[in-house]
Amino acid sequence: MEIKDFIDNFASNFDETDTDSFTPETKFRDLDEWTSMLALATMAMVSEEYDVELTAEEMRNAQTIEDLFNTTKSHL
Amino acid sequence: MDNLLSLQGKHILVTGASSGMGKVFAQMAAAQGARVSLLARNEERLKVTLESLEGEGHDFCTCDLTEDDQLTDIVNKIDQLDGIVLCAGINDFVPVKFIKQEKISKMFQTNYFSQLILVQKLLKKKLINKGASIVFISSISSMLGVQGTLLYASSKGAINSAVRVLASELANQRIRVNAICPGIVKTEMLSGTNVDEDVFTKQEALYPLGLGTPKDVGGAVLFHLSDASRWLTGQCMIMDGGFTLN
Ligand SMILES: NC(=O)c1ccc[n+]([C@@H]2O[C@H](COP(=O)([O-])OP(=O)(O)OC[C@H]3O[C@@H](n4cnc5c(N)ncnc54)[C@H](OP(=O)(O)O)[C@@H]3O)[C@@H](O)[C@H]2O)c1
């Protein structure tokens, strides 16, 4: 599992944000487009791509894309 | 005057009785004198509910409602019923882009198909007495458009439609069929979904009478089960502490 692919998958749920600038350090909650729906979409993406079911708590604890990547990885 | 709300002498089946609202409904029905049969998957938690019931003669059956053969077993074991509370249910928030056949099936299997099959099997074996009351626990979600609730809301919407048809088909036996559509109720379900519990608790401000408790809804369930509601059928009662007034 590569962080680069993870970022691409993460970015695929966005429609408005310029996702080219996404890095592991991106604090996704600070993005204008971030909503509770995008949180659900992110969890659904992780489930679909990595077969990992993130909990609401794990989602809440993650601040950066890398945090999410690491949490997902820890389930593999 | 007779106590219209009494459930004395009635045998009531409560599905989803191992947790949340179903557990409290079972306790309240027993306190009104009913003999209660409990149904859910988790035996340990069903035993806890059973032990908490007032009165004698109650029992439980473990059953995964989505398994047809387990449903058949239950129907072969259970005796005549005067009331059924269909409270078992699941929730899962899925944005439309991520819906899959598998997710649709799981939601509808638990929240809708299994409930119909249970009622069908009980009717076929003539296990539902004349004058009995069937109460579905639907949800206010079925009437709103909350993001992420497509599967859940439509499974509950299907119940609302089923209630009217069942009520009309069963009226000649004086079997009444209704649904209750609660707003947010503080139960285990809120911490068990893929949405942060805060999302629900933050809604409290939008509820003029505050978020609901299982007991709040239980009052309406007792009314539906009792002879006090003997002229009520085919209805979906919204119970949401005034949420939809806004
Ligand atoms: N809480 C709310 O805000 C709210 C609002 C509106 C409507 N509702 C509805 O109210 C009902 C009760 O919800 P709750 O909040 O009390 O939820 P809960 O605490 O999660 O209880 C759900 C119950 O359903 C049972 N169940 C789930 N899948 C089952 C299956 N396949 N076979 C048999 N039993 C199954 C569970 O038992 P086991 O795990 O032991 O099987 C549990 O007893 C649900 O239909 C829900 O949709 C809830």
Features:
heterodimer; A: 53% helix; B: alpha/beta; 7-stranded parallel beta sheet; 8 helices; binds NADP nicotinamide-adenine-dinucleotide phosphate
Written overview of the protein:
The complex is a heterodimer of chains A (76) and B (246). The longest helix of chain A has 15 residues, at 36-50. The N and C termini of chain A lie close together (9 Å). Chain A contains four helices and no strands. Chain A has one domain (3-15, 22-74): ACP-like (Non-ribosomal Peptide Synthetase Peptidyl Carrier Protein, Chain A). Chain A has 76 residues and is mostly helical. Chain B has a seven-stranded parallel beta sheet, sandwiched between helices. Helices cover 40% and strands 17% of the residues of chain B. Chain B is of the alpha/beta class and 246 residues long. The model of chain B has no long low-confidence stretch (mean pLDDT 96). Chain B has one domain (11-238): Rossmann fold. In chain B, 43% of the residues are buried. The chains are: A mainly alpha (76), B alpha/beta (246). The interface between A and B is medium-sized, with 18 and 14 residues. Residues 16, 18-22, 40-42, 45, 63-66, 87-91, 110, 137, 139, 182, 184-185, 187-190, 192 of chain B line the site of NADP nicotinamide-adenine-dinucleotide phosphate.
